[in-house]
Amino acid sequence: MKLNDFQLFHVVLFLINRVLYFCDGSVLCQEPSPVPNAYREWSGIGMTAEVNYTCYTHYVLMSGDLVRTCVNGVYTGDEPVCKLDCGVPRNLEGATVSYPSTTSDLTSVSKAKYDCLPGLKVKGNSKNTENIAEGCKAFLADGSNVDHVVDGDTTCKPLTDTSIDIHLNDTYKIMKIFIVHNLASINKISVSAIQNSTGLEKTCVEMDYGDGTVGITKTLYSSKFYASAKCYGDIVRIVLTLSTTLSICDIMIYGNLFIGDCGQPAVKFGQTVEYTNTTEGSTALLSCVPPFYPENNHGVITCQGTAWTSSKLICTDRHDNIADEIPNNLYDMVLDNNYTTCVNIGSSNGIPSEWSIDLGQDYEVNSLSVTFGDMDLSQPVKAVIVHSSGKATTCQYERPKGAGVVVAFVCSYARVTRNIKLTGGDELNLCDVKIKGRYYDEPLECYNSFKGIDYKGTQNVTSNGRVCLPWVSIPEYSSTIENFPDVSYDETGNHCRNPSKDGRGSPWCFISPIEWHYCSVPKCGKYIVFASYHEYG
């Protein structure tokens, strides 16, 4: 049969591109290539195949298309380009900021430049001013003018009152205060800052010197030793308790212009935040994102000066005891959280004693805590994770000694299971079993364990954008599935992993038979994303 030009064209195109054809000449699209910094979800081979991309968390689409459809063997649009978006740089006290862009990648890095406001200068890594009190107005409590204490002159004059208000030219965060005096014995000092517009007074420091100290120059306040964020205002009030008459020569105040903006609150693993303002006194509410739940109720933070108060909210996806989710009547006294009620299980027909549990659904199991009663523990006791494939993994443990001992079994890789077995010798005397883990319906796109050996996600592109090779194609890793968190190489695929005993610091993959590179897989303590049945990359 002789082919016409049209048919011959499609035969050649098929051989070059290895796409699939129907007899009528319709062309099917194969799997699209992964792109850096994006998840992808592919509908599979077909004439109307579709691929959907989603940029990684904190990345934004710069060009290309997030949805591409197969038309006669070719996907419409262009591959998406996702870049890291760092957001708007936060304000710094006493400085202005300029920046060309908030996005960045390996080839184009965006930098923010800060410049000090007029009257401020940079010294080392901190911003310092000259003496901001010099030339300002100073008054005693009775209203008497005592400008001589802020004139920069060391001429000393006795004071009838030891409460002094120094009116600054702007609102400042107070860093240090020095007083030059003429051999006065100071028993106690109090320094506070007042916001003239609101009358709000904040105590910077109160200090008791006991019997009094005598000196020429005294440091009344230094933010190095105190929470300086709270000490700001446009009036500084100094109150001294003396044993003798005070002659003040000069008062020097050093500080920075106060901006009063805390910027965007930071969130951690499994958290979200709600807030309306970032100015002094504003509050923000941190909460956990389902399926994560709070371990405590410390979710409210407050903007104080230029920084948010620290949050102690902890969000977790791990149940302290998965067994609490299982009806106790199925396993009687073993799951009743009562250490005094125990169950004795003996061996039968030469088969070692065994206790098993069906968790009812899939969990990533991290560890077991088992309380044993009065039994012979000279023979090893094992905790075994049974996978859906039937393959079993033994959790590590330390041999218990004596009766009533609580033994922790650590299950490396947090492998997925719904069935757990405890096996012993002639008998098992079980008083309580607790199981720690998380409900599993999809892998996390981050890791919890040391160096990420538990990572089961689907990222398959390195941090420099190279596509990973299948692990089974690397000879030295093609028969060591027990060193992976997956049950089979079908699950491992070409996804980033950190097989045990390799010593690398985080998930990685091979990009050639002899080259490897780290992947950009975050630790779950930074933020959390789900695979959602997407292929990462």
UniProtKB/TrEMBL annotation:
Residues in the signal sequence: 1-25
Domain of life: Eukaryota
Cystine residue pairs: C496-C519
Keywords, comma-separated and alphabetical: Disulfide bond, Kringle, Signal
UniProt KW Secreted keyword: no
All residue ranges annotated as the Kringle domain in the record: 445-524
SMART domains in the cross-refs: CCP, KR
Protein's name according to its UniProt entry: Kringle domain-containing protein
